[in-house]
User: Fold this.
Amino acid sequence: MGTVAVLEYHLVGYRRTWRGSALSSFVLPLLTMLGFGVGVGSYVAPIDGVPYLDWMVPGLVASTAVNVAIGDATWPVLGNFQWIKIYFAQGAAPLRVVDIVAGHLAFILFRVLTSATAFLVVAALFGAVPSPWAVLSLPVIVLLGLATAPATMAYSASIKSDSFLALLYRFAVIPMSLFSGVFFPVGSLPAVLRPPAYALPLWHGVDLTRAATLGVAPDWSAAGHLIVLAGWAIAGCLLVLARFRRRLVI
Amino acid sequence: MASDQPLVHARRLVKKFGGFTAVDGIDVDVHRGESFGFLGPNGAGKSSTMRMVGCVSPPTSGTLRILGMDPHRDGPAIRARLGVCPQQDNLDQELTVRENLTTYARYFGIARRVARERADALLEFVQLAERATSKVEPLSGGMKRRLTIARALVNEPEIALLDEPTTGLDPQARHLVWERLFRLKQQGVTLVLTTHYMDEAEQLCDRLVVMDGGKIVAEGSPRALIEQHATREVVELRFAGDSQDDYAGKLAGIGERIEVLPDRVLLYVGNGDAALAEVHARALSPVSVLARRSTLEDVFLHLTGRTLVD
Assistant:
C-alpha cells in the first residue's frame, strides 16, 4: 500500500523525463549494434563458434541493466537525502522505512527492466538474439537489478558527498564492467583477476543472460549463479533497510 | 479518546545524541484546538522535540503520548493524523506545485480523485492556485513555504506541526503565512509550532514554553509570561562610546531592573515616560532612546541572560 504510493511518486517524476530516457534506451543499443556488429565484430573471431556480436549482446544487456541499477541508486538516492530531502518528507507521512525503500527500489527495477528489454528488442531486430530462450533473461535481469541496486542504495545512504560516488565508479563499477565477461570471456583474464569477477554480481548475470539469448548451458552452474545473485540481493536489502533506518529514524 | 485528554503529552522527555543532550527532561501538554509554541534560540532543543512529537525520532527516555498513542508502537497511525511542515522545505523541485500535493496525499492512502480535489482547495487556501501547474523550483521562498504548509494539510490533520514556519521569509511573506495559520486555527486545527521570533509567538500562540539548553524555563500565555517576567514598559538607551557598562551605575534606581547589552541598556519600568524624565534629570544624554511595551524577547532575556536571535 505505502510502497505502491512511493512507487507512484517516482513514476510521476519519471513522466517528465521518460522521453529522453526511452530515447537513449534505444539509441545506445542501436549505436552499439552498428559499432560492434558492423565494425569491431568483423575483426574478431567467433567465440565458442558464436559470432562476436551475438556473444557480446547478452553481456551488454546485463551490463546495461547494472548501469541503470547503479546509476539510479547513486545520485538520486544521495540527492533524496542531502539535497531535495524527499525521503524525510516521506518519513513524516504514515509510511514505514521499508515502504520508502521498497517503493524507490521498485521504480529502479522498472527502469532496469525497461532499459534491458529495449536493448534486447533492438538486438533481436539486428538478428543478434538467436534463441527464444532469451525471454528467460528478463527475470535474470530483475534479479541482477536486485543484486546491485539495494547494495548501491545502502552505499549512497551512507555518504554525505558525491565525491564518494566517483570513487565507487572508479574502483568498483568500471572495473566490474570491464572484467565480468561482457566483452571477452573471464577465462581469458590472468588468474589473479578472475576472483573479483566471480565475487561481484555482474558476471553471474552476464553468464545467465548469455545462456538464455544463445540457448546454451551457462559456463558455470545456473544454481551457483542464482545463489550468488540472491546472496547479493538479500544482503543488499538488509543493508539498505538498516542504512535508511539510521538516516530517517534518529 | 476522552475530550480532555491532551493531544500531546510528554513527561520527563529526553533526547540524547551520543553524549549531547538535546532535550533534557521536558513536561508538555497540548490540548485540542490550542495553538502551542516552543520559543527559544537555535540549539534550544525545539526541533528535536518536534521530531519526537512527529514520530520520526524515538525518545531516549521519558513518556510521550500523541493522540493518546505510543509513537514507538503506533508511529504510522499517529503520523496519519499529523501534518508536518519541517524547518527546511523538502518539496520535489521537479514536480509541479499540484503534483507535490497529490503524490503526498497518496502516502496517506487518499484516493486520486479526492487528492486532486484537496490539492486544488489547498492551493486556493494558500493562494497558489494560479501556480498549480508551475514547477516548484522557480517559486519564491514564501510561496514554497506556503506550499509546504499546504502539503502538511493534505490529510486534514488534527495536529499541524510547524517547525519555524516563517524563518527566512521577508515581512510581507511572513504576514501572509501568519494570516493563513490563524485561519487554520479558527478551523479547529491544533497548531504546535517552534519559533525564535518573539513576535511570531505573540501573534500565533495561545500558550507557549520558553526553551533554553534543552530545558523548559517558563510556560504560559504570552501575556502572562510578560506580566510575570517583565515590567509593563521598557526603555532602551544607547550611549556614545565603547562600553555601555559605565552607565549601569549612573542609572541605578530607575525602574525595577537594568539589563546591560553590548550595544544598549534596557530599563525595565512601569512608566517609560517617567523613567525617561528621570534619565534626563540625572543629566545623562543617550544618543538614542526608545520607550516600548515589554515583549517575549524581554522575558527570554530575563530568564536566560541572552537574546533570542543572535
Remarks:
- The mean pLDDT of chain A is 93.
